[in-house]
Amino acid sequence: MERTGSVCSRTEVELRGIWRRKRESCAIRTQCTEWALTMRLHERFFVDFRRRQLDSVQLKRHYESSSHRGAAKWDHERTAG
Fold it and tell me: What is the domain count for the chain?
C-alpha cells in the first residue's frame, strides 16, 4: 500500500474490508490501514464533538434569550400592576 502525501491510496470501503478481515483473523494491521482508520475515527469524533458543542451553545443562547424575555415581561407586569 502506498501513501501519497498524507492520504492512503485505498478507499474507505477497502479499508473497512481489510480491517474486518484482519480483525477476524487476528492478523497484524498494516501501518497504512491503521493510520487511515485512526484518522477516520478522529475525524468522526471531532465532527460529532463539535456538532454537540455547537448544539449546546445554541441551546444555552435560546434559554438565555427566553429567560430574559420572561424576566422582562415579569418586570413589566409587576411595575404596571
Answer: 1
